[in-house]
Amino acid sequence: MPFTVEQFLEVFAAYNRAIFPMQLILVAAALVAIFLAIRRNKLSSKAVATILACLWLWMGFVYHLVFFLSINPAAIFFGIFVIFQSLILFYAGVLKDELSFGFHSGWRGTIGGLFILFALIIYPMLGLVFGHVYPESPTFGLPCPTTIFTFGLLLWTDKKVPWYVLLIPLLWSLIGFAAAFSLGILEDIALPIAGIIGTVILIWHEPKRNAIA
Question: Taking phi first (over 0 means left), then psi (-120 to 50 degrees means alpha), and beta for anything else, what does residue 141 get?
Answer without folding.
Answer: left
